[in-house]
Write a structure and sequence with these properties.
single chain; mainly alpha; 5 helices
Length: 86
Amino acid sequence: MKPYLLSLGAGLLVGIVYSLLNVRSPAPPVIALVGLLGILAGEQIVPLAKRLFSDQPVTTGWLKQECVPHVLGTLPVGESKEKDQA
């Protein structure tokens, strides 16, 4: 989670600098980002429909294993506490 927060913080800082310099951001408009989110979510409709029509249960575990990684990407994993103690 830390890389995401650092990325958000860096983006906010750059946005503030752009605003102070009266420069327009090269980032895509929000509507384009919403469209990308729709694409990612839409890609999960086919596997979900296949599972529903095959009479297999749609469980939270299945959603987390099959859908979440495709939509959110591979989330960072924290370092183990054993490494810190060594």
